Structures are given as C-alpha cells and as structure tokens.
C-alpha cells in the first residue's frame, strides 16, 4: 500500500539518493554530463537540502510502499517559494517518481498531497515551473487543470533553459 509521509532531516541520505536519481533519469539524456553534475551538486548537496528540510515554509514527502521510496514531493509557501506568487500560493518545486514506478498513479497521489497541504495552509492556488521540453510532465499538468501563466529561466549548469510557469486555482 502506498503511503505519503513527511520527510525528516534524518532521511537526508535517502532524499539525496532519490533526488539525484530521478533528476538524472528525467533530464540526463537531454543535457550534458557537466551541466547535470553542476546542477546535482548545487541542488542536492548536504548543505542546500539541510537548509530546505529545516525551513518551516518547505515540506518534503516520500511516496513509499513497504518502506521502498518510489518518489517524492517538495512544496514551498510564503518566503520559501522560488518566485513570489503571492500569499495565496503554494509552489510544487519538485515532484518526481522513480522511473520504475511511473504510470501507476503516484504523481497524482503526490499532487493530491500538495492540494491537502495547500488547503491546510489556507492557499487557494498551486503553481510550478516545468521545462518546456518535458512533454510528459506538461501533459500530466494539463490533465490536472494547470494553465500556463508565464515563463522563467531555469539555470542548469551553464545552460539557461526555459521553464513554463503553470497555475491551478483550487
């Protein structure tokens, strides 16, 4: 049975492992090894993840089955958002599922957790950034009712990439 549980600082090594693996699986074939290494070291090192895990405005969750980590979710509110979208917004900064467990409804379960957290904190909209070339993710977010409201640059090593800003009102 799939469980969605909040991650604690004591689970930093497991979070690093799933973060690095899912990011590499998702974007590795479309980017240079040097840019991937630069991003993985910058985003998923001990220091940045510890800071994020201890931020009271950020929330991490694992999707687990029999203590096996299948995917994870990172949410931000208030000042923890990567871009200010206002006091009514919750950001889904990361939502990743291990490639062996995709197409089993885990992304939807993680998204439902995001809605639950948003409502708990009195938020009325959810936003995220998604790479313009990630067709599978774009299809998933459109299916969930997200609409593009803008774009921004996502810096991957020395490669500036375009992310689409998507929003869903609750």
TrEMBL record:
Coiled coil: none annotated. GO terms for cellular component: ribosome. InterPro entries: Acyl_CoA_acyltransferase (IPR016181), GNAT_dom (IPR000182), MshD_Acetyltransferase (IPR050276). Keywords: Ribonucleoprotein, Ribosomal protein. PROSITE patterns: GNAT. One of its GO terms (molecular function) is acyltransferase activity, transferring groups other than amino-acyl groups. Residues 2-170 form the N-acetyltransferase domain. Pfam families: Acetyltransf_1 (PF00583). PANTHER family: L-AMINO ACID N-ACETYLTRANSFERASE, SPORE COAT POLYSACCHARIDE BIOSYNTHESIS PROTEIN SPSD. This is Ribosomal protein S18 acetylase RimI. It comes from Weissella bombi.
């Amino acid at each position: 049975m799939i469980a969605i549980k909040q991650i604690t600082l004591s689970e930093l090594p497991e979070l690093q492992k799933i973060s690095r693996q899912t990011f590499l699986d998702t974007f590795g074939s479309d980017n240079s090894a040097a840019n991937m290494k630069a991003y993985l070291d910058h985003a998923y090192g001990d220091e940045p993840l510890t800071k994020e895990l201890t931020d009271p405005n950020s929330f991490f969750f694992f999707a687990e089955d029999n203590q096996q980590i299948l995917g994870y979710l990172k949410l931000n509110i208030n000042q923890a958002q990567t871009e200010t979208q206002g006091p009514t917004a919750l950001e889904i900064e990361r939502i990743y599922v291990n490639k062996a467990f995709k197409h089993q409804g885990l992304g939807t379960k993680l998204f439902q957790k995001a809605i639950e957290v948003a409502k708990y904190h009195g938020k009325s909209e959810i936003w995220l950034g998604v790479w313009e070339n990630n067709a599978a993710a774009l299809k998933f977010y459109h299916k969930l009712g997200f609409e593009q409201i803008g774009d921004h640059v996502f810096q991957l090593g020395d490669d500036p990439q375009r992310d689409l800003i998507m929003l869903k009102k609750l």
